[in-house]
Write the structure tokens for this entry.
Amino acid sequence: MSNKSKKIVVANWKMNPENEEAAKRIFLYTKKISKKIRKTDIIVCPPFVYLPLLSSFARKVSLGAQDVFWEENGSYTGEVSARMIKGVGAKYVIIGHSERRALGDSDEIINKKIKAALKTGLSVILCVGEKERDPHGAYLEFLSNQIHLSLGKVSKKEFSSIMVAYEPIWAIGAKSYKAIDGQELHETALFIRKTLSDMYGYTEAMDTPILYGGSVNAKNANEILTEGGVQGFLVGRQSLEKELKDIIDIAESFKTI
Ligand code: PGA
């Protein structure tokens, strides 16, 4: 899916901004700051309704949706299918974001969404993350379960279109106190990689991008990459701010050892 030496920055706009004009302005700004970027893939995930407008300006910046429904069409009021998303220019879809899980998406639902997205040719950004950390490491089992259930019956071939965003819930959004510590992230990223390796094999696991999300900003981005051992970020709040430029620049200038 993605070149391993490349970094990845996913901008998750969530339910922002309030109108098309602002969406266009933020997107064009993101596009402008991406102009000289060569070693970082930038994926903007706006609300569904802005996808058609933004895809007309897209090029260098890829587009993704923030969710998808698993059925292809029919009586599912309020839902949007993978084909519809693809049809308006998105190549990616975030599935399993904790804010969707909080609204009722179980691992089983997430699995159905992943399968529908992959079948349609969308690449998947699968979010996983624990609510809290306990000293005995039960959160690792929780993560492993989330990964196994979300990827149930996803074949090795399909798996190559998936990246995993590790987003500890306690680090996400305005109520969180801080991003994860680099060392803790490193250990968790290794654990996720090991889980994927047990499921799909070493090479496949090594080829899968693991991102980090949760209070990423220009101050902690470097530590997250240097110590965390991840390939990029899923950025929420800062993806709507000028600071996104600094985060992308940090990813771009990061040297993989
Ligand atoms: P945040 O959100 O960067 O605002 O913490 C991250 C996310 O929810 O993906």
Remarks:
- The pocket of 2-phosphoglycolic acid is lined by residues 12, 167, 172-173, 213-216, 234-237 (CB under 6 Å).
- Residues 182-200 form the longest helix (19 residues).
- The chain has one domain: 7-253.
- The domain at 7-253 is CATH 3.20.20.70 (TIM Barrel).
